[in-house]
Design brief:
57% of the residues lie in helices and 11% in strands. The chain is α/β, with parallel strands linked by helices. The chain has 3 domains: 72 residues; 238 residues, NAD(P)-binding Rossmann-like Domain (Rossmann fold, 3-Layer(aba) Sandwich); 30 residues, no CATH class. A 7-stranded parallel β-sheet has the order 3-2-1-4-6-7-9, sandwiched between helices. Helix 4 links the parallel strand 1 and strand 2. Helix 7 runs parallel beside helix 8. It is globular. The structure holds NADPH dihydro-nicotinamide-adenine-dinucleotide phosphate and ligand LVWHZ4SM. It comes from Chelydra serpentina (Snapping turtle). Pfam families: adh_short. This is Dehydrogenase/reductase SDR family member 7B. Putative oxidoreductase.
């Protein structure tokens, strides 16, 4: 018997006519289901298949489809309730935003104003704050935006100003529901060239200022057993990249402080949300300070390619509304880098050393 004759039949392409060889006839009839022993089995199998096909159809229409529809309905209801709860939480809430004069802070102001929060806008530049108040007032939807934002001018790196700003806010609006510590500056430079005055300036603005402001507002939140502290950290609060020492250090310190605060405030029902974004299209790189304390003044390619500030502001709004403890707003690579730093630190350090070599080479050439 030539078994190669069976190949086209097994592949289902072509069955040759059965040769006279009796062994062949047996195999051939088995394959074509014409053998007497095979037919009853084949019939039983077909019947079994048909019965189960029917049962499967019944199961699909009586259980699986209603279950799926029910789950979708429940999910939609859950989202609706979540949205309603969020709106109720944010509407009329007193929201203090630092660094409201530009970038993410300005977009957060627009997002929280749109849901009816009572804004306290903080910054160093009174004129720009007033421009924002005008812009928000012009957009006001009178059903929701009944509160005219109130502005406070102070420099976060001046601890006395920080404390008196907190006092002024409490005097003017009575209490703070949500504090968004957003203001910050970045830095570009090598550790060897950077003076301690620059390290201190970055730490004062990004770390000491926000923690002093938070501490000044906390007692009134504790008294009311109500409040929410938000801080805009960075992916660089979780991983450190070369030529950002002062900035990454300030953001790591921020992450650590607010993680401790979250645990300590639980007993007073005060929430803490840490937001860690990747690159955002703002003037952060332009406003960055360099090793000698001068302005960097360059809009970086990574910044241009980042998320829009409006998009990140929506993430902040949702995170606050849902009382999330922590949010990472970054692409796949930076997010993977965060895990790599913990799970395979040697590999991460190798990547960072090679990044430093490349950046140095690009600067030198
Ligand atoms: N852009 C990005 O790629 C990313 C940004 N972030 C973080 O987002 C936050 C907002 O930055 P972003 O909007 O991007 O940058 P911008 O430079 O556009 O905004 C920074 C804001 O902080 C204020 N600020 C700076 N220094 C002080 C100070 N000493 N006292 C008071 N206010 C000050 C600025 O006010 P003024 O107008 O007076 O200078 C400005 O309003 C920062 O904490 C930053 O670290 C995090 C990850 C990525
Ligand atoms: C398994 C494969 C993993 C591969 C990981 C390789 C490592 C990739 C490195 C990615 C580095 C991302 C850095 C992101 C930095 C960032 O988003 O910072 C946000 C900022 O705060 C921006 O401030 P800046 O002043 O630096 O513009």
């Amino acid at each position: 018997m030539e078994y190669s004759n069976l190949v086209p039949c097994l592949l289902g392409t072509n069955c040759p006519p059965a040769p006279r060889d009796p062994e062949w006839t047996k195999v051939f009839s088995l394959l074509t289901m014409e053998s007497e022993t095979v037919i009853p089995w084949a019939r039983m199998f077909t019947r079994w298949k048909n019965i189960h096909k029917g049962k499967l159809m019944d199961l699909t229409f009586t259980a699986i489809v209603p279950l799926l529809l029910g789950s979708v309905g429940l999910f939609a209801l859950f989202r609706l309730l979540q949205r309603m709860r969020m709106r109720a939480y944010l509407q009329d809430a007193v929201v203090v935003i630092t660094g409201a004069t530009s970038g993410l802070g300005k977009e957060c102001a627009k997002a929280f104003h749109a849901v009816g929060s009572r804004l306290v806008l903080c910054g160093r530049n009174g004129e720009r704050l007033q421009d924002l108040v005008q812009e928000l007032s012009a957009k006001a939807n009178h059903a929701k935006n009944i509160h005219k934002p109130f502005t406070v001018i102070f420099d976060l790196s001046d601890s006395k100003m920080v404390v008196s700003a907190a006092e002024e806010i409490l005097k003017r609006v009575g209490h703070v529901d949500i504090l968004i510590n957003n203001a910050g500056i970045s830095y570009r430079g090598t550790i060897l060239d950077t003076g301690m005055d620059v390290d201190k300036k970055v730490m004062e603005t990004n770390y000491f200022g926000p923690i002093a402001f938070t501490k000044a507002l906390l007692p009134s939140m504790i008294k009311r057993q109500q409040g929410h502290i938000v801080v805009i950290s960075s992916i660089q609060g979780k991983i450190s990249i070369p030529f950002r020492s002062a900035y990454a250090a300030s953001k790591h310190a921020t992450q650590a402080f607010f993680d401790c605060l979250r645990a300590e405030m639980e007993q007073y029902e005060i929430d803490v949300t840490v937001v860690s974004p990747g690159y955002i299209q703002t003037n952060l790189s332009v406003n960055a300070v360099t090793a000698d304390g001068s302005h960097y003044g360059v809009m970086d390619k990574n910044t241009i390619e980042g998320r829009t500030a409006a998009e990140v502001a929506q993430v902040v709004l949702n995170a606050v509304g849902q009382k999330k403890k922590e949010v990472l707003v970054a692409g796949l690579l930076p997010s993977l880098a965060v895990y790599l730093r913990t799970l395979a630190p040697r590999l991460f350090f190798t990547f960072m050393a090679s990044r430093a070599r490349k950046e140095r080479k690009a600067k030198d050439s």
